[in-house]
Design goal:
InterPro entries: ChsH2_C, ChsH2_Znr, NA-bd_OB-fold, Thioester_dehydratase-like. By secondary structure, the chain is mainly β. The chain has a single domain, classed as Beta Barrel (OB fold (Dihydrolipoamide Acetyltransferase, E2P)). 6% of the residues lie in helices and 41% in strands. Strands 8-7-5-9-10 form a five-stranded antiparallel beta sheet. It is globular, with a radius of gyration of 16 Å. 22% of the residues are buried. The protein binds zinc ion. Zinc ion (ZN) binds next to loops.
Length: 144
């Protein structure tokens, strides 16, 4: 990996009242998503209303942290997300529970031949400032 001398400052999310439970979860090593108390839809990203039925009865649950690689792009442009490291993988991860989220992949070379769609992934948390970023790495085998 290259690491530019004039590294862009790493992006650090700032929790808002609506996203604070999510970021408190990542700090605690949990990936949290919302569930609708009316229609049971699972929701990510954080929002005040259910996107399926409009109810305001969303609460937080812990997701397994496992998912699959739905889509990705290998970026060769340093960004605040990568902190200057290139190339890096921007991925859309489909969580086991259904919702999809964007993240970065770690623990795997950013090479198309190593990145197979539907490959199993699991979340890891990278401390950054007052939050921890949910990143994904190739999943280790499930323990029975
Ligand atoms: Zn709903």
């Amino acid at each position: 990996m290259n690491h530019a001398k004039d590294t862009p400052a790493r992006f650090t999310p700032v929790p808002t009242p609506g996203t604070r439970p999510f970021w408190e979860g990542t700090q605690a090593g949990e990936l949290r998503i919302q569930v609708c108390g009316h229609c049971r839809a699972l929701v990510l990203y954080p929002r005040p209303h259910c996107p399926e039925c409009g109810a305001q009865s969303l609460s937080w649950v812990r997701a397994s942290g496992r998912g699959r690689l739905h889509s990705y792009v290998v970026s060769h442009v340093a960004s605040p997300w990568s902190g200057g490291d290139t190339p890096y993988v921007i991925a859309v991860v489909e969580l086991e529970e259904g919702p999809r989220m964007m993240s970065n992949l770690v623990g795997v070379p950013p090479l198309p031949e190593r990145l197979q769609l539907d490959m199993p992934l699991e979340v890891v948390f990278e401390p950054r400032g007052e939050v921890a970023l949910p990143l994904f790495k190739p999943a280790s085998p499930r323990t029975p």
